[in-house]
Amino acid sequence: MEKLAENKIIEDLLPQKFGKQGQIWVISLLAVCALGFYAYCRQLYYGLEVTALRDYASWGIYISNFVFFVAISLVGSLITAVLRLTDVHWSTPLTRIAEIIAVSAISFAGLIIIVDMGRPDRFYNLFTHGRLQSPIIWDVIVITTYLFISLLLLYFPLLPDLKIMIGYKERNGKYLQKLYEFLGSFWKNKPEQFKITDKAINILSVTIIPVAFAIHTVTSWLFATTYRPGWDSTNFGAYFISGAFLVGAGGVLIAMYVFRTHYKLEKYITDDHFNKMGKIVVLLALVYLYFNINEFLVPAFKMKKAEEEHLMGLFTGEFSPIFWFAISASMLVPILILVTKKGRTPKWAFFAGILVVVGSWFKRFLIVTPTLLHPFLPMHDVPKNYMHYFPTWEEWAIAGGSLAGALLVITFFARIFPIIPIHETIIETESHEKA
Amino acid sequence: MNTKENSRREFLATTLLAGAALAGCGGNPFTPDEVTDVKPSGEMVKLLSVDGEIIEVDKAFLKPVPEMPPVPNSEARVGIPGKKFAMVIDLSRCKSVKKCQSACNHMHHIHPGQNWIKVYPMQESEKTAPYWQPTTCMHCDEPPCVKVCPVDATFKRKDGIVLIDSDRCVGCRFCMAACPYSSRVFNWEEPQIEKEIADKPYSCETSVPQKKGTVGKCDFCPDMVRQGGLPHCVSACPNGVFFFGDILEDSVTNGSETFRFSELIKDKSGYRLMEDLGTKPSVYYLPPVNRNFPFENSEEKEKA
Amino acid sequence: MRKHKIIQVLVLVIALVPSLLMAQAVEKNSLSLNLKYYNDNNITHHLLVQAKSKIDGKFQQIPNIPVEFYITTDADKANLLGKGITNGKGEALIEIPPTAKMEWLKSPNQTFVVTAAATKNFDDAKGELAITKAKLKIDTAEGRMITAKIVALVDTTWKPIAAVDVIVGVRRLGGILNANETQTYPTDSATGGVTAEFKRDSIPGDQKGNIVLVASVVDNETYGNLTAEMVVPWGKKSVYMTNFDHRTLFARRGHSPFWLEILAYTIVVGVWSVIIFLLVQIKNIKKLGVE
User: Fold this and answer.
1) A213-227 pLDDT, tens per residue?
2) Rounded to a whole number, what is the distance in Å from the CA of A226 to chain C's nearest CA?
3) Is residue A1 included in any domain, yes or no?
4) Is C1 inside a domain boundary?
């Protein structure tokens, strides 16, 4: 890292007011959210009838969106915990980006699952009548836990930064100042305090890894605990987790690029960061590819009757365009881009990140829907429109609204708090200088 | 079985035996029935006996049992004591008349287009014989749908019936994904039923009225069984395809013919669907052998 | 004058035509009421009516038809036994009430009437049934034999009746399981009785091995439906087993397997104690800051 004066670092990293671009961005996100909200009101009024979901395809893009959110939230544990525990320091500027992605994604995962419920008014039944045998209850428990741990992991490293920001009273304005003081007025930079936070962050880093594995493994079990071809797989937990790390890392690539260019953070999110994250994405894509091969090649080798229809639907049938798009966009093309040195430059890496995230979203769609449309007994004695699934505008609007909402949370977070940890960057620079 | 039920049975048996010993002196309307553990309702009715005497009878012991209000939810969740229901579907008799389906749809006020009973045209492979396969809910002994329900909205009862409590269901549809027999349907919109039906008090034994945003499926008509009747599909089928009964009594009936369950399954090589999944269904099938009618798929003709 | 009359007739015809056409438009379906008599174990007895109509060439059961049951004749309102509404299967039934005592004791033969007033879609209808009072008696004999005997009231004495088909078997859910391979037995001309060998060895009974034997006459033209029941200890003692209260994955709330509960609660308690510990640490940091 370049030699930088402490004041300069603080100056560079303090949260900034929205510029014109920022305002347009926020307004358009709000508009998408509002449309989603309108669509949801319609759904509440008319019931799930407004969706294209029917008795066979009873889960659709709400559930694939849910899986997508849970997946992308795993990145918090990857960047903060795994890299921290392995003593990798270059990732320090990325930790907060990763954590806020995790917090916002996991919150919207919880919301979208309520959207999918036929009777959201009875949500409390999950607590008053919860059955421990049901994987849904496991999911409710682990997702709540993960949200709390992620919030703590966001909060502890924020304390020293809060003290710095409290010093800029005029710049902050009345309300933000109050918020900062509420959250961190007690932080005095005492060595004893640092001792406690360091210990707490270490404990959290250890705890979050199994919990992160749990959220996505349990989410995969929502499918793998059934008998259906395409879901009935012992590979599912590992397959989901590897895919989650990949999409999360892709998401970080995008966020890195956006924050870097928008907030002029080239000195902090450097080319080298893209280089290193690019390599990580290649590794993760290869791991995910490995699990995909396991997931599809092994049953395809046997071609059991029930599996055959489902697999052929993916390989050459109805779903083949999406299938091959998802496989190439989420894995093959990003690998090809990011293995080259030029591919790991910010712009190319950003592009690869977008491919990974979009491809992964469609991959989640393919995990949910085609299986439901290939039941054991042939689809029969139902109206014709029950045999296909293409989401209605309400579904797209609600799913889009939830994605926009998650982006809004990240955007506002970056408006209020330093998206790159100030204190830790100063420490890193100092230790760099000493060395 | 608890002692209360025990003493009730003994009471029934002794009263009837005493009645029989008195050689038709009449006056005792109690018929002991080891299969229906009917509890006295406490509501007495005055009737004229066959001998022209005026007698008093508890309403619950009348046969056929008059229509009683639905049992409370706590009782509906436990089931009818001392029973284990099963169904036998004789594929050799099914011509896809679909009277079962229409009776079921009618009696349960199922949303138009949806069906709890489906009649599949089946053909295992190109050179094997086509046949009709009606499916109901299999009422599995190890039901995968019940395993995954997060809120006890679908449950397995003592009498083997798997029911849904539409007042509890949150509409997550996990059970629909878990059921390998595709027997569950969802009320995607407000049910299109007459006000009179919609205003009826809901009971999970009648499954009426259906409720928006919840799951529905074949319920083996426990309300009919409580009245001493048979499920609607059984009595509606003109070909006697469906047999219903209590496995603990070792008998099944389609209304006109009654067989010993064990003998029927043994003689006709009964089997269950997807045995390899380990769901242990309560519905048995008799193979489609010796059919003296052709397999005519009119639906396919319509399509073509 | 004559002209006048012609005009009158013309007016009449013109006035009638629309109403005739109207009548054509709302043509009602004819309803048939099929009445049946049931003698239940020689104690109580009831009437059942089935409402049917031929619609589009097919007989259909008609629900929601209000019906009135009468004894002897429907001309006298005093003979009203009661009212009913046909259910989803097009059936309604009534137990014979005490008010029928006088009529019932008058004669060995009895007529019942059921009526339905005209409704929006159906014409009014009437069904009649005449029966001769009869009793079916059941007993057992040496060697697991079941005997049944049918007697009918002739003047004032009960006399045996021949050539009536009787089903003999065991009462089961929803039906009667025949005592052996024979479906029905015709009653003997001399005694009015039938004898059936009980061949349902080891058929499950209740916990004491009791089963209910049944003799039944179904839809006899003269006597209606008769049943007689008796309890015998000929069944296998049943042992009722259920896994309802077992801890399984498909059991209800609070009945999950121990391994699952231990596993789940250990993990939840473990992770949440870490979270609580960390929340306490935040408090500690606060304390340090305030000092």
Assistant:
1) 999 999 999 999 999
2) 13
3) no
4) no
- Whether B120 has its CB under 8 Å from any CB of chain A: the answer is yes
Rounded to whole angstroms, the Cα distance separating C85 from C199 reads 42
Which residues does A139 contact at the CB level (< 8 Å), separation at least 6? A215, A218, A219, A222
| Structural domain for A33, as ranges | 6-122+220-434
- Does residue A141 belong to the interface with chain B, where contact is any CB pair within 8 Å? no
The rounded mean pLDDT for chain B is 85
User: Are residue C79 and residue C162 in the same domain, yes or no?
Assistant: no
| Residues C107 and C194 placed together within one structural domain of the fold | no
Determine the distance in angstroms separating the CA of A314 from the nearest CA of chain B, rounded to an integer.
19
pLDDT of res. A80: 80
Mean pLDDT over each residue of chain A, to the nearest integer:
93
Domain boundaries, chain B: 3-61, 73-286
- A163 falls within a domain: no
Q: Are C178 and C266 members of one domain?
A: no
Co-location of C164 and C191 in the same domain: yes
C70 inside domain: yes
Q: Determine the residue of chain B that is closest to A63 in CA distance.
A: B172
Query: Mean pLDDT throughout A311-325?
Result: 95
Task: Look at chain A and report how many structural domains it folds into.
Answer: 1
DSSP string, B3-43: HHHHHHHHHHHHHHHHHHHTTS---------SS--PPP-S-
pLDDT of residue C49: 93
Beta bridge partners of C91: C50
Mean pLDDT of A239-247: 95
Residues C224, C272, single domain; the answer is no
Q: Are residues C126 and C177 in the same domain?
A: no
Regarding whether C138 and C128 lie in a shared domain, the answer is no
Can you tell me whether residue C290 is helix, strand or coil? helix
Whether A321 is in a domain gets the answer yes
Select the more confidently predicted residue: C261 or B26: C261
- A341-355, B42-56, B222-236: range with lowest mean pLDDT: B42-56
Side chain identity at residue C6, one-letter code: I
The answer on C56 and C104 residing in a single domain is yes
Q: What is the domain count for chain C?
A: 3
Q: What is the CATH number of domain B73-286?
A: 3.30.70.20
Query: Where do we find the tokens 């121990």?
Result: C258
For residues C122 and B41, which has the higher predicted lDDT (pLDDT)?
Answer: C122
CB A386 within 8 A of CB A273: no
- Chain A interface mutation, best of C252, C262, C285, highest count of A Cβ atoms under 10 Å: C285
Q: Is B266 an 8 Å CB contact of chain C?
A: no
Q: How many CB pairs under 8 A join B and C?
A: 162
Based on the number of CB atoms within 10 Å of its own CB, is C268 exposed (0-12), middle (13-18) or buried (19 or more)?
A: middle
Question: What's the pTM?
Answer: 0.88
Residue B188 has its nearest CB partner, among A47, A122, A137, at A47
Q: Kindly indicate the confidence band of residue B19, based on its pLDDT and cuts at 50, 70 and 90.
A: very low
CATH of the domain at C106: 2.60.40.1940
Query: What is the Cα–Cα distance from B110 to B113, expressed in whole angstroms?
Result: 8
Half-sphere exposure of B260 (CA within 13 A, CB side): 16
Q: Which of A341-355, B27-41, B104-118, C94-108 has the lowest mean pLDDT?
A: B27-41
Residue B163 forms contact with C (CB below 8 Å): no
Cα–Cα distance measured from residue A4 to residue A25, given in angstroms and rounded to the nearest whole number: 31
- Nearest in space to C150 (alpha carbons), one of C163, C142, C140: C163
The average pLDDT across C256-266 equals 95
- What average pLDDT does the segment C97-105 reach? 89
Judge whether residue B248 has pLDDT over 50: yes
pLDDT tens column, A144-172:
999 999 999 999 999 999 999 998 888 88
Residue C22 lies in a domain: no
Per the structure, the complete domain to which residue C85 belongs is given by 31-132
8 A C-beta contact, residue A406 and residue A66: no
Residue A368 lies in a domain: yes
